[in-house]
């Protein structure tokens, strides 16, 4: 039995803003048609080792009055703003799962005897649900408000969210309604399902950084569908790292920057297909948030790799302790700036606008014949052309690596980074063990080259930071003395970095030679 396809947009509502949701014009207009609120209790099942979660599945039994409905959901690996999940739903006779009713080839390998025997309830959700049917243009949309909590033993967390599910029509209408709601309520795009919230509660840990997930592509997929899959994965990573960043985890902030770099690289890879004013505006917004996050990360790297080894040394020299303290203060200010940006209305709007642009942006509706042909072109040929073109550029630049000045090395580093992201994005377009083996070697070589070029770029950035950290406005004698000590320490750090250039350049040359021998994984 083929799974049903669930297409929905999920929004989180801060608990303290729930009253604003109830008073929003959208809900007031829809209230006359709303259903009677119902209490839903859903029990989620898994094994002690959480084997279903590891397979990207969730299994729940929901009690609705006297009825029980079993639902199995599978994340498709690319869901971000617009959720599109496989779903198997069946009425069952009791509170325990009945896996015999879910006969599907995709589920068979997962629900073997051992897993069936090990299933047990692990957490539950209790929500008060109200459903509002909405007609938006020619589209029929179901707006659902859930308010309640997720419970796992003695642990619990509040749950307040809005789901916009497309019943019939165009997905663009989901975003139209979401924008209307966002004008009155500080809603935020949600990338975690209720099941994921429950698993997070079980772990009992602070929000963890989320790395980039693989993108599932096939050779016959269109360029439009391929870009949307890639962009969804990038957006999901960006939003998923917001909690870790706001929790003070520098790795969370780093992963947000990685997500933005990957998204901007994807735009570059599909540039000929994304030629419209709306895309240009999105690129401006991506640049803004990248710039807001950048200083904190640069100072983190500078402190960890350059300052701390010197500061921890004995003796560490005059001014190093003062300099380290000053840099830590600057780093905290930069991190506060990054968090303010991530919590801002502008960022929330950016995320919603990005989701809408991915799914139903102007570029998807360009009626020009050439644009339409570009969108419909199978990804396999376009991916091979793009990979080959970028690969040749790096081979040409790397042949003169020793003669390149820092700006041109920086340009080569960006080219290597984009080629690496392209290789990761397009892997599924070239299936087979041989292609996979070659791709792994190709990407590994690129990573080493990128790391070496990145180290060279860090040296240049660190030299710039060393020049900035001495306060030119110091006036008093004591301040001038402190400035002199900091200047001495900054000069020492800059000298240490400068001394590394020759060694790191040799590393980059070795990495380039190894990469140049790697065989391409595309035909």
Task: Please describe what this structure looks like.
There is one protein chain. The protein is α+β, with helices and mostly antiparallel strands. The two termini are 36 Å apart. The N terminus is likely disordered. The chain is globular and about 75 Å long. Strands 1-5-4-3-2-6-7-8 form an 8-stranded antiparallel beta barrel.
Structural descriptors:
18% strand, globular, 17 helices, 523 residues, eight-stranded antiparallel β-barrel, alpha+beta, disordered N terminus
Which SSEs are present, and which pair or pack?
Layout: E1 4-12, H1 18-22, H2 25-30, E2 38-46, H3 51-54, E3 57-64, E4 67-74, E5 82-92, H4 113-118, E6 120-136, E7 139-152, E8 155-168, H5 172-182, E9 188-189, H6 194-203, H7 223-240, H8 242-246, H9 250-269, H10 277-311, H11 320-342, H12 345-360, H13 369-376, H14 379-398, H15 406-425, H16 433-468, H17 477-516
Helix pairs in contact: 5-12, 7-9, 7-12, 9-10, 9-15, 10-11, 10-12, 10-16, 14-15, 15-16, 16-17
Q: Describe the sheet with the most strands.
A: 8 strands, antiparallel, barrel
Order of helices and strands: EHHEHEEEHEEEHEHHHHHHHHHHHH
Q: What overall form do the CA principal axes indicate?
A: globular
Q: Got a strand count?
A: 9
Low-confidence stretches are 1-5, 78-82, 472-478
User: What percent of the residues sit in helical stretches (DSSP H or I)?
Assistant: 40-55%
Radius of gyration: 26 Å
Strand order of the largest sheet: 1-5-4-3-2-6-7-8
> Between the first and last Cα atoms, what is the distance in angstroms?
36 Å
Kindly report the average pLDDT value: 87
Strand proportion, as a percent range, falls in: 15-25%
Structural class call reads: alpha+beta
Please report the number of helical segments: 17
């Amino acid at each position: 039995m083929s799974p049903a396809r669930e297409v929905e947009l999920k929004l989180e509502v801060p608990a303290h803003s729930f009253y604003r949701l109830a008073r929003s014009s959208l809900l007031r207009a829809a209230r006359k048609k709303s259903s009677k609120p119902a209490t839903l209790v859903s029990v989620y099942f898994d094994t002690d080792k959480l084997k279903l979660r590891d397979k990207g599945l969730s299994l729940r039994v929901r009690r609705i009055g006297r009825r029980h409905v079993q639902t199995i959901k599978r994340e498709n690996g690319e869901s971000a703003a617009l959720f599109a999940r496989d779903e198997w739903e069946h009425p069952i006779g009791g509170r325990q799962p009945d896996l015999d009713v879910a006969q599907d080839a995709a589920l068979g390998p997962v629900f073997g005897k051992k897993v069936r025997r090990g299933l047990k309830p692990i957490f539950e959700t209790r929500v008060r649900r109200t459903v509002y049917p909405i007609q938006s243009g020619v589209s029929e949309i179901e707006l659902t408000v859930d308010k309640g909590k997720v419970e796992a033993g003695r642990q619990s967390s509040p749950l307040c969210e809005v789901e916009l599910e497309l019943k019939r029509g165009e997905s663009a209408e989901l975003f139209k309604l979401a924008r209307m709601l966002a004008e009155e309520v500080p809603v935020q795009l949600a990338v975690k399902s209720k099941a994921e919230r429950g698993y997070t509660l079980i772990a009992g840990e602070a929000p963890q950084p989320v790395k980039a997930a693989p993108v599932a592509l096939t050779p016959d997929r269109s360029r439009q569908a391929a870009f949307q899959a890639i962009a969804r994965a990038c957006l999901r990573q960006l939003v998923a790292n917001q909690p870790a960043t706001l929790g003070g985890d520098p790795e969370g902030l780093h992963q947000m920057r990685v997500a933005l770099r990957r998204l901007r690289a994807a735009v570059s890879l599909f540039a000929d297909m994304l030629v419209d004013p709306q895309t240009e505006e999105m690129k401006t917004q991506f640049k803004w948030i990248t710039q807001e996050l950048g200083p904190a990360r640069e100072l983190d790297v500078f402190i960890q790799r350059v300052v701390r080894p010197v500061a921890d040394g004995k003796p560490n020299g005059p001014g190093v302790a003062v300099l380290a303290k000053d840099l830590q203060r600057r780093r905290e200010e930069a991190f506060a700036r990054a968090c303010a940006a991530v919590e801002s209305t502008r960022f929330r709007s950016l995320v919603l606008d990005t989701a809408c642009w991915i799914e139903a942006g102007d570029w998807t509706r360009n009626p020009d014949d050439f644009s339409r042909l570009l969108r419909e072109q199978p990804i396999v040929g376009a991916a091979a052309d793009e990979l080959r073109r970028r690969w040749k550029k790096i081979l040409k630049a790397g042949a003169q690596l020793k003669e390149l000045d820092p700006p041109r090395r920086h340009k080569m580093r960006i080219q290597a980074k984009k080629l690496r992201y392209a290789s990761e994005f397009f892997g599924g377009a070239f299936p087979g063990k041989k292609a996979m083996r070659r791709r792994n070697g190709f990407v590994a070589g690129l990573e080493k080259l990128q790391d070496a070029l990145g180290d060279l770029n860090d040296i240049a950035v660190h030299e710039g930071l060393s020049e900035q950290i001495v306060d030119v406005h110091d006036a008093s004698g004591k301040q001038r003395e402190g400035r002199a000590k900091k200047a001495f320490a900054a000069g020492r750090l800059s000298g240490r970095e400068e001394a590394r250039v020759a060694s790191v350049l040799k590393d980059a040359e070795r990495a380039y030679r190894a990469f140049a021998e790697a065989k391409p994984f595309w035909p």
